Amino acid sequence: MKDNKDEKIKVISSITLTIVALVWGTTFAVIKDTLSIVQPFSLMMLRFGFSALLLSLLYIGKIKKAKIKDIKNGSIIGIFMFLAFYFLIISIKNTTVSKVSFIIGAYVLIVPFLAWRINKKKPDKYALAGAVLATIGLGFLTIEKGVAFNVWDIAAVCCSFFFAAHMIAIERYGKDSDPILITVIQFIVTAGIFVVLTGYFEGYDFSILPRIKWTLGYLVVISTVISFAVQTAVQRYISSTSTALILTLQSVFGAIFAVWYLNERMTFQMGIGCVLVFAAILTQETKWKFLTKKD
User: Is 29's pLDDT higher than 90?
Assistant: First the structure.
């Protein structure tokens, strides 16, 4: 009975995380467009600053009850979050969204091995096959012919690594604390470091707020507060390897969003990429048991 309940929780968690991937699939293009108005560190400062403020106001009771352990765990996760978004904003600023989407999505290949190294959880053959399939699918989905890699793509590689590390950190340090509390603390850490970087490299200019209010509202409420709170909560029930694989769907949803919103063309190559990513998730999550299931 308990096994059935646990299985249902895992399914619900996976579906919820798929919705998060759908939201994040739209953010690369939104951020790229917004960077024509606001400086990169300033955007991240505002995004995570307002996210931390909003969540703190909503859950002030939980904040007051925070223990040293919660602050420590949340801060560790927050440092990895900051590093991931530091390299994300640099790479988006200086290279194409399609390349960034592919390189960052490659964390699906990093996470199983990083989890093996840090948490001593050896990935099974289905996890490895899923990771490889998803990476190939991302390549079909995002890489254009004749597009060469440049020095800024190294930032995207670093971003991919730290997003993988962020997932592992949530799996390792997030289970012993309230997920909302952990989310608030990692936002505060990330926002605080971006406040320092903004002041040193860009200067504070809040006059641009009216021009980006709707975009910032979307990034803060939907893409940050809700999405990261959900990720932190559901990773109590599914592994970092499964999380990484499901979140590769953001590249699939991003491509579909671009076709609808930016009037881009869905090519046959992109279609193959989408199929491969879905096949990868099916491989990892079901291990193809339904093909051998007996009545």
Answer: no
How far is the C-alpha of 38 from the C-alpha of 52, rounded, in Å? 20
Grade residue 201 by pLDDT with cuts at 50, 70 and 90.
very high
What whole-number distance in Å separates Cα of residue 198 and Cα of residue 221? 22
Distance in angstroms (rounded) separating the CA atoms of residues 216 and 279: 34
Q: What are phi and psi of 210, to 5 degrees?
A: -60, -30
Cβ pair 232, 170 in contact under 8 A: yes
pLDDT at residue 52, as a whole number: 95
Q: Rounded to an integer, what distance in angstroms lies between the CA atom of residue 187 and that of residue 225?
A: 9
92 Cβ contact partners less than 8 Å away, ≥ 6 residues apart? 28, 31, 32, 35, 40, 100
Q: What DSSP character marks residue 149?
A: P
The Cα–Cα gap between 244 and 288 comes to 19
CB-hemisphere CA count at 13 Å for 134?
36
pTM listed for this prediction: 0.81
DSSP codes of every residue in 11-75: HHHHHHHHHHHHHHTTHHHHHHHHTTTS-HHHHHHHHHHHHHHHHHHHTHHHHHT--HHHHHHHH
How far is Cα 20 from Cα 214, in angstroms, rounded to an integer? 19
- Spatial neighbors of 57 by CB under 8 A, at least 6 apart, are none
Residues 277, 25 contacting (CB under 8 angstroms): no
DSSP one-letter code for 263 = -
